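thought: user wants a sequence for this fold. calling inverse folding tool.
action: design(structure=
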């Protein structure tokens, strides 16, 4: 999943919702020390353009849609283990080809005009419809690559549904009764349950699709803990879903919060100052050099004027890298790609350019996580002489005749990305005499440039969609190449050897053998120098102490369903 989101034109939506009013919430009593009511406020660095889960391909959008929709399966607070969600239980056949889900009773969609007003109860048919949509070839669907090669009949359905939804859906996805869904795979896939925890599979009803069509992205109808109340070009406001199905360990109905309000930061410093002035409660992805802007001076702290807060840090399951499109002739040559890789001093970029923000990526593309040991993969070592020799072999001795390229950097408000891009450009100039022009832009602008072929090199970050190393390798699978692709395999990397290993790993039932195959895939990405792995990072958050029960994990997910407000003494 990409970490930046596209820019949105001015939009105003005010949507009626069925949520508890402030007076209703004030009458609710919780056990276990929790409190009902209040709201949490935070900022995003870019505008959210869609609230449809199958279009939520970046982390910013997912942080909103995950509050509105529930997936079939979820992850626990650690982000490591699969737990029930809309499916209260499931079974897996011995050969990992048939997954049977028991869909829970008593779950209701948000009240919406598509139902004539009052939301109806969820059934297995709704889950089937959502998965069918996620397999479709419709333009609205941006996550088909996760399912189309796995589910039986998904390829045929995808091909038949490029212009309209094909009735009947996918052969391998069947609702056998009101509460039972059976998914049959074309090949074994031991991690299919982990894949289904991806927030892009948030369930929505066919009535919403039939009613709103292409405008469905502005009319989120889910079963999640919050309901969309307002969406403008300045903010998104969510309010409590009073009929939410989930309860905490004490039997309290969730959520506790009355509302979630999301606004947009002009830059990271303005976001930090908003936290300091208590206009927001949460800051995500804190640059180390900016912390002082939140904490204030020693004198302010001694006078009790600083915000009472907590800081949390988790090593993120994410990698920042430089992408190179092999549609550009210069990057078709592996010697050029390797020269770029070993001409980049990752230690200098992290320790000096970014002032210690992150960790140099010295192994493969898959970062070191709880579910993967990256040390088994040998990465590139910084070697200017060898880089220069490779570039000369490719016909560009001393950088002569090498074209001037534009390095696209999405996230105009992200100072870290900008400094990183400038640092890389300076190193390539100094070490290879290659000129890169750094262009700051929105992700929408960058995506358009990649799709048109105008961008052949750009900065990006990929974060795990689910807790399995395969989520990183899917970026390079040849079967995911599409015309004008900007999301998966935009590098246009084609390797029959890699594809063979990737498919073998996907089908392998033995955990140790599967991991060996994944390591071989990761090493192949390095050996073919497909991209330039640059750095891994920490997910650092700062939260006002009045917000309780807030937890983070390496996948950088946000779950506001169980947090509550309690003012510190």
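)
observation: tool returned 569 residues.
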């Amino acid at each position: 999943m990409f970490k930046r989101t596209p820019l949105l034109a001015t939009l105003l939506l005010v949507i009626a919702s069925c949520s508890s009013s402030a007076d209703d919430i004030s009458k609710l009593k919780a056990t276990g020390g929790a409190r009902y009511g209040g709201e949490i406020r935070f900022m995003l660095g870019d505008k959210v353009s869609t609230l449809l889960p199958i279009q939520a391909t970046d982390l910013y959008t997912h942080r909103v849609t995950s509050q509105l929709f529930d997936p079939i399966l979820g992850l626990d607070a650690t982000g490591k283990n699969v737990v029930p969600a809309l499916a209260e239980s499931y079974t897996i056949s011995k050969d990992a080809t048939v997954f049977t889900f028991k869909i829970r009773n008593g779950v209701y969609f948000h009240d919406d005009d598509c139902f004539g007003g009052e939301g109806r109860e969820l059934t297995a048919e709704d889950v089937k419809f959502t998965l069918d949509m996620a397999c479709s070839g419709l333009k609205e669907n941006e996550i088909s690559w996760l399912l189309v090669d796995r589910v039986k009949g998904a390829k045929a359905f995808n091909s038949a549904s490029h212009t309209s939804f094909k009735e009947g859906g996918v052969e391998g996805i069947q609702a056998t009764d009101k509460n039972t869904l059976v998914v049959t795979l074309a090949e074994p896939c031991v991690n299919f349950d982990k894949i289904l925890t991806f927030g892009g599979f948030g369930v929505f009803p066919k009535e919403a699709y039939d009613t709103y069509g292409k405008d469905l992205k502005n009319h989120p109808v889910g079963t999640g803990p919050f309901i969309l109340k307002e969406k403008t070009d300045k903010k998104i406001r969510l309010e409590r879903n009073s009929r939410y199905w989930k309860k905490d360990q004490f039997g309290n109905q969730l959520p506790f919060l009355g509302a979630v309000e999301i606004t947009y930061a002009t830059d990271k410093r303005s976001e930090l100052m908003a936290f300091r002035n208590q206009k927001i409660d949460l800051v995500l992805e804190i640059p180390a050099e900016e912390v002082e802007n939140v904490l204030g001076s020693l004198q302010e702290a001694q006078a009790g004027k600083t915000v009472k807060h907590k800081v949390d840090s988790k090593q993120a399951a994410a990698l920042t890298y430089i992408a190179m499109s092999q549609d550009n002739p210069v990057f078709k040559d592996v010697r050029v790609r390797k020269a770029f890789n070993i001409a980049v001093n990752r230690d200098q970029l992290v320790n000096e350019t970014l002032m210690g923000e992150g960790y140099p990526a010295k192994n493969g593309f898959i970062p070191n996580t709880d579910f993967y040991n990256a040390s088994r993969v040998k990465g590139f070592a910084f070697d200017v002489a060898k880089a220069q020799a490779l570039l000369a072999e490719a016909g560009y001795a001393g950088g002569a005749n090498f074209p001037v390229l534009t390095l696209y950097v999405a996230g105009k408000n992200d100072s870290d990305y900008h400094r990183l891009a400038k640092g890389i450009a300076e190193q390539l100039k100094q070490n290879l005499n290659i000129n890169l022009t750094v262009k700051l832009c929105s992700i929408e602008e960058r995506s358009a440039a990649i799709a048109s072929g105008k961008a052949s090199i750009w900065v990006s970050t990929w974060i795990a969609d689910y807790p399995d190393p395969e989520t990183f390798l899917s970026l390079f699978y040849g079967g995911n190449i599409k015309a004008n692709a900007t999301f998966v395999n935009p590098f246009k990397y084609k390797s029959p050897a890699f594809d063979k290993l990737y498919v073998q790993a996907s089908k392998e039932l033995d955990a140790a053998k599967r991991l060996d195959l994944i390591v071989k895939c990761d090493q192949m990405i390095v050996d073919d120098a497909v991209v330039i792995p640059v750095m891994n990072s920490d997910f650092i958050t700062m939260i006002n102490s009045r917000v309780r029960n807030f937890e983070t994990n390496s996948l950088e997910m946000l779950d506001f369903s169980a947090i509550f407000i309690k003012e510190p003494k």
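thought: summarizing for user.
answer: Here is the designed sequence. The mean pLDDT is 90.
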